[in-house]
Design goal:
The protein is an alpha+beta fold. Helices cover 26% and strands 31% of the residues. The chain has 2 helices and 18 strands. The mean pLDDT is 87. It comes from Shewanella litoralis.
Length: 247
């Protein structure tokens, strides 16, 4: 009886974890550059004192869906969308290098170029700082940033930095708790000259809201089934106790 109850209990618990993943995906359906998390369930052998005679269910995330999201034209010179495979390099909160597809950029009062999450955008020599004041900014397909200083004539365009674009391979990437991606093996990815960006556009989330809604309904049904199994276990245990009393 305890095995029956244990399997149902662990299944219900893991169902709640799977529901949290789908809910997070759905919440980021409008987040630029977001990659949906995937989940899978499997049975795990329970080891401990005595023989390994029981199993439990476990939900795990084997990775993220790296399919490209839709390209949305914005017309902003500081918006960039990575074409095909590749990543923008940014600086994480701990100072390490991380990677994202969110390309809605801006610069603060000091000229520091950051993305929509206020993460500094990395160049070949560290975080990119634009020389203020600026009248016009352009970002080329290879990530080179050109500016026209305030007061300069229209033909004056100066190259000031280049956004670090990398492509280590999606199978080498993993998402961190801050939502940024890093190399599984650690370290920094080298610049890839073949990665290109489209200026005046951003990549949208690759989350399919309909798919996530259907997944959430399915998980909730499974959770209800596990709860019913626990109730059935309780009823069977009560009936067994009554029989023992009669005998």
């Amino acid at each position: 009886m305890d095995k029956f109850l244990y399997v149902a209990m662990s299944g219900a618990k893991q169902g709640m974890n799977a529901l949290a993943v789908s809910a997070n995906n759905l919440a980021n359906a409008n987040t630029d550059g977001f990659k949906a998390d995937m989940t899978q369930a499997r049975s795990m052998q329970a080891f401990g004192e005595g023989l390994p005679s029981r199993v439990f269910s476990m939900i795990e995330s084997p990775g993220s869906n790296f399919a490209s999201g839709p390209i949305v034209t914005t017309g902003r010179n500081l918006d960039v969308a990575v074409k095909g495979d590749g990543w923008l390099a940014v600086q994480a909160a701990d100072g390490s290098e991380a990677y994202t597809r969110a390309g809605s950029l801006k610069f603060d009062s000091t000229g520091l170029l950051v993305n929509s999450s206020n993460r500094p955008v990395m160049g070949d020599a560290g975080p990119i700082v634009l020389p203020l004041p600026i009248e016009h900014v352009e970002i080329a397909a290879n990530g080179i940033i050109s500016v026209r200083p305030q007061g300069a004539t229209a033909e004056v365009i100066e190259e000031v930095a280049r956004i670090k674009l990398v492509n280590p391979g999606n199978n080498q990437m993993m998402r961190g708790e801050d939502g940024l991606f890093r190399l599984m093996a650690g370290g920094n990815a080298p610049t890839d000259p073949n990665v290109a960006v489209e200026s005046g556009a951003v990549e949208g989330s690759n989350v399919n809201p309909v798919h996530e809604m259907v997944a959430m309904i399915d998980i909730q049904r499974q959770y209800e089934m596990q709860v019913k199994m626990m109730k059935n276990a309780e009823e069977i245990d009560r009936a067994s106790t009554s029989l023992m009393r009669i005998s």
